[in-house]
Specification:
With 177 residues, this protein is an all-alpha fold. It has 12 helices and no strands.
Length: 177
């Protein structure tokens, strides 16, 4: 499980995640979410899925289509008639904090956005774009993995994800040459 920058996930983080996803759904994203027929061809192109499959353990959560399921649920609830009716009668999407932790693991640690799934998909679904939306929503909610957040902060502060300053970098280059 990913070590997140926030240990406790409350309703505020869930709501931020939900709203970010909802706002990120434009016509193109909606068409991707609607077009997926769950055929599984993308899974055969995914390095993470195939890597687990080789080890004899088939993990359906590693399929590219699965990584967009929470985004798909949010889309259906807000932009389809049946979803709106379900929400109206109290059967809407109920995201649990544990689901966001799992979503962080999937979005940040099991996808490189290599685009192999998109190339394999007969519907042309841009799964890396969907995963990027989920990553953005998690980051907006403050649920970035700690190691990634630390590297990002060091990059902003010092210009390097490892915290190496210019002088040290030049010394390393001189040493190597």
């Amino acid at each position: 499980m990913a070590v997140l920058s926030k240990e406790e996930i409350g309703q505020e983080e869930v709501e931020k995640f939900y709203q970010f996803c909802k706002k990120s759904i434009d016509m193109e994203v909606a068409s991707y979410l609607e077009a997926c027929v769950r055929c599984g061809i993308c899974a055969e192109a995914c390095l993470f899925y195939m890597g687990e499959n080789v080890s004899g353990r088939i993990d359906p959560t590693l399929t590219p289509a699965y990584k967009a399921d929470l985004l798909r649920e949010i889309y259906k609830e807000n932009y389809t008639l049946l979803g709106r009716l379900k929400k109206l009668f109290g059967f809407g999407v109920k995201i649990k904090p544990e689901e966001l932790k799992e979503q962080a693991r999937l979005a940040f640690y099991t996808c490189t956005n290599c685009d192999r799934c998109t190339k394999a998909c007969p519907m042309g679904i841009d799964t890396p774009r969907l995963v990027s939306i989920v990553r953005g929503a998690l980051t907006h909610a403050g649920l970035t993995p700690k190691d990634l957040a630390d590297a990002t902060n060091l990059s902003v502060e010092k210009g390097s994800p490892l915290g190496v300053d210019t002088q040290t970098f030049l010394q390393r280059l001189e040493f190597i040459s």
